[in-house]
Amino acid sequence: METLKLVASYLVMLVFAPPVMLGIITKTKAVVAGRKGPPVLQPLYDTLKLLRKGAVYSTTTTWMFRLGPVVSLAAVLAASSLVPLSGTPLISFNGDAILFVYLLALGRFVTVTAALDTGSSFEGMGASREVAFSSLAEPALILAFASLAYRSGELSLARMFAPHGGPGSAASAVLALGSLFVVLLAENSRIPVDDPNTHLELTMIHEVMVLDHGGPDLAFILHGAGLKLVLMASLLVWLVLPEMPVAGRVGSLVLGLAATAVVIGLVESSMARLRLIRVPQLLVAAICAATFGLILTLR
Amino acid sequence: MGQLSQLLLAFIVFLSLYLLGSSSLTGCIKIVALQGMCLGVLPLTVRAEGFHPQGLLLAAGMFILKGFAIPWVLLYAIREVKIRREMEPMIGYIPSLLIGAALIGVSFALAERLPVPAGLRTSLLIPVSLATVMMGMLMMISRFKAVSQVIGYLVFENGVYLFGLAIAYQVPWIIEMGVLLDVFVAVFVMGIIINHIARAFDSISTEKLTRLSD
Amino acid sequence: MMLLLVAVLALGVAALLSGLMSRHDRWARNIVIAGLAGAAIAGGTLVWRTLAGQGASDLLWPWLVPGAVFHIGMDSLSACFLLLVLVVGCCAGLYGEGYIAGSHGHIPATPARFFFLVLVGAMALLVAARNALLFMIAWETMALAAFGLVSCEHGKPEVRKAGLLYLLCTHVGSLCLLALFALLGSNAGSLEFSSFAAAPALPAAERAAVFLLALVGFGMKAGFMPLHIWLQEAHPAAPSHASAAMSGVMIEMGLYGLLRLLSLLGPVSLEAAFFLVALGLVTAVFGITFAMAQRDFKRLLAYSSIENIGIILTGAGLGCYGLAKHNFFLALLGFAGAILHTLNHGLFKSLLFLSAGAVYQAVGTRDIEACGGLQKRMPWTCGLMAVGAAAICGLPPLNGFMGEWLIYSWLLRPGIGHGIFFAALAAAALSVIGAFAVAAFSKCYGLTCLGQPRSEGARDARDPFWIMLGPMALLAALCVAIGLFPSLALHVAFAAASDVVGQARLTVSASLEEWSCLLEVIGLFGAGVCALSALLWLFRSALLRRREVELGPTWGCGFTAPTTRMQYTGSSYSMPLTRVFAAALATREEVHPPLGYWPGKAAFESRTPDPALERWLPVLTTKFEEWLSLPRRLQHGRLQLYLLYVSAFLVIILLWKL
């Protein structure tokens, strides 16, 4: 019965959390800009609409193009089972944090190759930027994970991000939090790294890679991207949440995700996109901050 | 050593890192101002057993001087000499950041070996002050503009202040007042010098000063 | 033990016969296949028996060579490497037959066959050798056979240059090994490996000398960072099946040598372990950064070999750290990670080299910028290359992840002690390497196989015959199999690692169970990803069945007349990252931009030379040349003076000795 409940709540989170979180971000930006904005559930409607559509494939493309969205969504779904999305994770073992990072890399690899399959120069450009920026985001992620792993003494996501009180923990946790937040922005193509709403292909990163996808494929990609955001945001939320009984954990996670979405929306409304050559600098700064956090953890 | 002061110290180091990666001159001055404010608040969080009136006074003085007066002078200097508001680094931003991170590591390693009283060994004050001093030096070494060297000097001085805070438990406010006065005068003099360099050479880059050597 | 002799003999006889039968191509080919099959059956049985615990006793034959005994033996470490030699050797050999036939006479068949079989045979003998002299003989035979393979197409000047460079490097390495064994032998009083282990400990200075000599001697073959200079030249020059065997197995023999020496001489110092880890990471970061900047896909693969050797060395260094700290669990974990990654690297790197060879033969160039659109024209080759590329990036459902995961788990384990901060930095470096590998191999696979053809050659490319596809498919299947069911490979790696560590097998076998469980969970997880993908694929097909699915041109963002040459190129693909490392890469660019209102021809050329070969080495060699030019004054062609030298030398010798 317990497992059934766990799986059910997981399914609800997997289906509804990504569109709602994206919807809250859009709503926040609209409210800050003085507009009314689309309904919060709009991304869900979009996904459902895309699922009911046909598809157009470029004659250049091969099976790689069709495989890309499927595998990338599968990778993110698999990664989600390691993250405690409903209080406890579905699967947890010592060393799953590394698996999590590499599952995200798998998703990236297939998305990038699917983009290259179209032969479009714009999509090649997007793919090139994606691999470049995520190569710099990944060490920041690993360093932050390392400091949390050393702090908790375990290398599984559920334990690393569990509440922990100890000397010197607050400062290092805050630094890990900061660098993880930058990684979140970079990996999920948010401002200041990438603008999801831009309309000029030359300036896009993630969106330009999926220009040729349509119908269910695009729905998979959008949902996968949203889910990736939810996963990383929920890690941030678990890092901040204090110790609490199991019953309250799901509710506070949902609230925390909503709050994170509002924060992302505020960041996006208050900042401009960085020039592309400045992005590596931001990511290196995240690496430095994570290193500092690590030093603080280890003393 | 409460959690709050640890957070503040981490934030101070983070601000120094930010300085190393920032390209805007005015932005840098504002960051230094913020760092100064943090320094002003810091003594209040370090001593948990209560506030001395003198300590409070010093904190207020620091807060105003480092957070408002000195930045104001610098901003004024920039506005007056009408220079381009970019840092012009000699070492690129990414290498500076990485060197900065390395310096943090070095200062923590140094702090382990420094012969300090046992109570200080666990404190973050010593390593943070060393890191701040080193990053200030790095700023001064790796940037061309005179204004950015003043900024580096201010960061350096912040580090010295932190060190003083660490060694003398009873805030040695007389010494600190002296140091502060020195800094204020130094910044004033530098502001004037910057003005003069600008007038004489139509630029405030210290590169041009090397011509004076022969 | 006779089985090993049978295997080596089968290869040797096949090599000779195929040389004799050079007039009858069909016969020669059948002989090669028969020889490989014989070696595989005999060697495979031996490997199986050894790993199953029924180890055969050593074989000792008196030998006419002074000071040497023909002594071969087999333990798990040897068996593990022998397995790699056989799998990769047989796959590459079979493929080589198709490759030689497909080259239309460009590759001379007889030397290619002869040297290949000799190479495989020498490596099989090498891993079993238990006597330093026998080891050196096998080592040199291997090195010379590889030289023969590298300079197969000696009509081309760049091939001759690469061959000479390789010969030079391998001999420097061999010299160091000779000195090493002389040192060990004089201490032990015999050239038997077992006597090295039993000999009294060396004084500190000589221990350091042994360490350095081994590092240079074996590192030259393996390609540690400043010693890698021959690698990126030799691999593109050799025929592809030879590069596969060289990169997949031969360079790993350097690692085998180091591990064997460790098992004989016991732990190195803590500083040396730190040094090995640092050297491994530097090698790996260097290799992958330069791989990213290459245009020639075989060169890219060669640099990625350097990267993987670096990862393996990191693992081995971590094992040494464990040994030095007397923490046998950590030692075992580090060595197991290194050995598992060695096995995996042998599989996916040879797969990549074989598929790159197929692409080279079909397109006629190794330039990534001239390929493209091959997936439609050679679907099998490109599909298999995709598997190899994903595996080498260490992506989860495939085997590359397993070894890296072990090394990560070592590094991020709390409570290692003093070096923990460096461990975290090493983990970060490893993640940089992994992410760069994604960049480099999405370039290697994506720009070569996907998109539209950029040249005539790419337009007319076709898949090769089964004799080339079959071995590639087998290697790819092994990559997937190890990825999904890693516990067997892990047990092999642990068995080999415990041979390196020594007696630790008994004390930590309980925790090994835990690790193999974890890896099995990861394998299941990979299977889960595959199953999820299949489910989603079915879902997608069901959705699309009732809808309209159209075909059309790629969306050109409003531009209506795109040509295939407007696609993103490999150089531009890697530019965002190569710009960040511009100072280190020192890419030379020659730009002739379009000028004026009606621009004429524009051109852009870039080349990333190897820094060690073209920047650092010349600094050394010019100094050395100056030194060497001093005694050149003695050489001037006058007979009388030469006679004087001879007599003077005689007199001096007499004076000194009498």
List the helices and strands and how they pair.
The complex is a heterotrimer of chains A (299), B (214) and C (658).
Chain A: H1 2-32, H2 42-51, E1 55-58, H3 63-80, H4 96-117, H5 121-152, H6 157-160, H7 169-187, H8 206-209, H9 215-240, H10 246-270, H11 279-298
Helix pairs in contact in A: 1-2, 1-9, 1-10, 2-9, 3-4, 3-9, 4-5, 5-7, 5-11, 7-9, 7-11, 9-10
Chain B: H1 3-21, H2 25-46, H3 53-81, H4 93-113, H5 118-121, H6 125-142, H7 146-167, H8 173-201
Helix pairs in contact in B: 1-2, 1-4, 1-6, 2-3, 2-7, 3-8, 4-6, 6-7, 7-8
Chain C: H1 2-20, H2 25-51, E1 59-62, E2 69-72, H3 76-102, H4 109-128, H5 132-150, H6 157-188, H7 193-198, H8 204-222, H9 231-237, H10 240-265, H11 270-292, H12 297-324, H13 328-363, H14 374-377, H15 379-392, H16 400-411, H17 420-449, H18 456-459, H19 466-484, H20 487-501, H21 509-545, E3 549-552, H22 570-580, H23 582-585, E4 588-592, E5 603-607, H24 611-629, H25 639-657
Antiparallel strand pairs in C: 1-2, 4-5
What does this structure look like?
The complex is a heterotrimer of chains A (299), B (214) and C (658). Chain A has one domain. Helix content of chain A is 71%, strand content 1%. Chain A is built from eleven helices and one strand. Chain A has helices spanning 2-32, 42-51, 63-80, 96-117, 121-152, 157-160, 169-187, 206-209, 215-240, 246-270, 279-298, and one strand spanning 55-58. The model of chain A has no long low-confidence stretch (mean pLDDT 90). With 214 residues, chain B is mostly helical. Chain B has one domain (3-213). Chain B has eight helices and no strands. Chain B is globular. Chain C is mostly helical and 658 residues long. Chain C folds into three domains: 1-249, no CATH class; 267-535, no CATH class; 611-657. Chain C has helices spanning 2-20, 25-51, 76-102, 109-128, 132-150, 157-188, 193-198, 204-222, 231-237, 240-265, 270-292, 297-324, 328-363, 374-377, 379-392, 400-411, 420-449, 456-459, 466-484, 487-501, 509-545, 570-580, 582-585, 611-629, 639-657, and strands spanning 59-62, 69-72, 549-552, 588-592, 603-607. In chain C, a hairpin with a 6-residue loop joins strand 1 and strand 2 (69-72). Chain C is globular. Chain C starts with a helix and ends with a helix. The model of chain C has no long low-confidence stretch (mean pLDDT 89). Classes of the chains: A mainly alpha (299), B mainly alpha (214), C mainly alpha (658). Chains A and C meet through strand 1, helix 3, helix 4, helix 5 and helix 9 of A and helix 15, helix 16, helix 17, helix 21 and strand 3 of C. Strand 1 of chain A pairs parallel with strand 3 of chain C, so a sheet runs across the interface.
